[in-house]
Amino acid sequence: MSAYERVKQWNTFARIWHIYDAKWQNPIESAKVISKHLQGQHKPIYHPLNDCGDHVIVMNSRHIALPGYEWKKRAYFHHTGYPGGVSWTLAWQLHEIDPTLVMKKAVRWELPRSLIKFRLMARLHIFPDQEVPEDLLKNVSSQIRQLRPVPRTLASYSDKEVDEFPKINDFPKDYILK
């Protein structure tokens, strides 16, 4: 095997580090994309019995967005293992306790039920804000594209952009809103 072929093989089987910005993203839809990268389904060498998945860093999990009334209606199950240890926690309560848990539970749900699930979850690194440790950022070589665009806030527009925005009508300066 030539040196070129050996390097190609190393690159094929190497674990790549991806970064994903979860700001304003639906965690259920994002979990489908993240789980494919954790399992290695995006690679041409994927096989269900082969552990060829990559590492994924998820940042801004504090700023995820669930659609509609999902914050109030989605409940997460937990059992302590003891009799009477069953509890159901609403998504907004779980998110207040730990801002990474909703995303973590969504990804765990998408992974296959097998013994490898724990190894796959160990490769998932979730952070509530943009502060990611520098030693992890050094490993990142790819970015997973966001599923939906992040809207701009009104405060992010400059005065020039506000003045140039088309208006339906201009109120006189002495106009008083009631």
TrEMBL record:
GO terms for biological process: negative regulation of translation; translation. One of its GO terms (cellular component) is mitochondrial large ribosomal subunit. The keyword Ribonucleoprotein applies. GO terms for molecular function: mRNA binding; structural constituent of ribosome. InterPro entries: Ribosomal_uL13, Ribosomal_uL13_bac-type, Ribosomal_uL13_sf. It holds the Pfam family Ribosomal_L13. Keywords: Ribonucleoprotein, Ribosomal protein. It comes from the Eukaryota. The keyword Ribonucleoprotein applies. HAMAP family: Ribosomal_uL13. Belongs to the universal ribosomal protein uL13 family. This is 39S ribosomal protein L13, mitochondrial. It comes from Diaphorina citri (Asian citrus psyllid).
